[in-house]
Amino acid sequence: MGAEGQQSGQWADVTPDAARRLVTAAVEAFAERGYHATTTRDIAGRAGMSPAALYIHYKTKEELLYRISIVGHRLALDILRRARDSAGSPADRLSEAVRCFVRWHAEHHTTARVVQYELGALAEEHYAEIVALRRDTDAAVRAIVEDGVAAGEFDTPDVPGTTLAVLSLCIDVARWFNAEGKRTPDEVGELYADLALRMVGYAKK
Amino acid sequence: MGAEGQQSGQWADVTPDAARRLVTAAVEAFAERGYHATTTRDIAGRAGMSPAALYIHYKTKEELLYRISIVGHRLALDILRRARDSAGSPADRLSEAVRCFVRWHAEHHTTARVVQYELGALAEEHYAEIVALRRDTDAAVRAIVEDGVAAGEFDTPDVPGTTLAVLSLCIDVARWFNAEGKRTPDEVGELYADLALRMVGYAKK
DNA sequence: CCCCGGGGTGAGCGGGCGCTTAGGAAGTCG
DNA sequence: CGACTTCCTAAGCGCCCGCTCACCCCGGGG
Question: Is B165's CB within 8 Å of A169's CB?
Answer without folding.
Answer: yes
